[in-house]
Amino acid sequence: MPGFGLTLGLTLAWLGLIVMLPLVALFARAASVDPGRFIETVTSERVLAALQLSFGAALAAALANAVFGTLLAWVLVRYRFPGRRLVDSLVDVPFALPTAVAGISLTALYAENGWLGAPLAELGIKVAFTPLGVFVALVFVSLPFVVRSIEPVLQDLSPEIEEAAACLGASRWQTIWRVIVPTLFPALATGFALAFARAVGEYGSVIFIAGNLPGISEIAPLLIVIKLEEYAYGEATAVAAVMLLLSFVLLLAINLLQRWSRSHLERR
Length: 268
Prior knowledge:
Elements: H1 4-31, H2 35-42, H3 45-78, H4 84-90, H5 93-96, H6 99-110, H7 117-122, H8 131-156, H9 159-167, H10 172-200, H11 204-210, H12 220-229, H13 233-267
Helix pairs in contact: 1-13, 2-13, 3-8, 3-10, 6-8, 6-11, 8-10, 8-11, 9-10, 10-13, 12-13
């Protein structure tokens, strides 16, 4: 193929400069930290609590968006209703909205005197300045990834397939589970992975609504910033390296699951 070598070389060079070089620098800095200090840092109660909140809330937000994002994409593709274009445009708001603005808006909305926070507080549900607030913020910023990943697949999925399944005697639930879900699963896994990756590293929209209480509502990215402000560069690098490794392992597992689903669907 003419120009393949040059194109591949430029691509790999750009990828190495933008992605690989910072990662190598991070691990090189982490390797320079004393092993005892590294283990002590990443196993401390505060760091473990921050990692648990960051990854747990990110996974929960990605799962929630996998369900409700799929439903939203289904409605936008399969139905025509007044205001559909407006709803479709609103899905992309988290892409364009600065994260700090999103955090301030969510905090004002879910505070105990906010429009939604006040009635929830009467029910004994506190959102702002709690781990629940972290979950809400992560759901907000990661929703578009699931919707936009599934929409093209739904547009290519002809309703005639569902009609054929119904003609063969399949119930609505059987059609969804055996026809629609297997077809959507690779795209859903992609959207889930993108949503998780977006949520696990989120910072701006979370710090306002989280409250940032150590051991309770403090996320790992904020803890890294705090370590940097305290000039504890080794500890900050250690936490960042652990976050990167955990993210890589989870994303690799999701990608392998996505590949298996595609190969299984092709065999069918």
